[in-house]
Write a sequence for this structure.
């Protein structure tokens, strides 16, 4: 491995330290996107379940009023 500067020059070390973080930051961006997608799906499911519960409650109320 050759370096362009004198021995102990930190510029080549800094370059190698920066290189691995770029793909890592890309992975984190992907992770954030996946988490946001999951959150949106959970919100949609929660709304669906809430609507189902409200509908079931209305049906129960109608059945109670008919049974008397």
């Amino acid at each position: 491995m050759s370096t362009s500067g004198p021995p102990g020059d930190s510029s080549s070390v800094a370059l190698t330290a920066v290189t691995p973080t770029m793909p890592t930051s890309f992975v984190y961006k992907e992770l954030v996107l996946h988490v946001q997608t999951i959150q949106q799906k959970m919100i949609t499911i929660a709304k669906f379940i809430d609507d189902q519960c409200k509908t079931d409650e209305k049906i129960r109320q109608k059945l109670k009023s008919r049974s008397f």
The chain is about 85% helix and 0% strand.
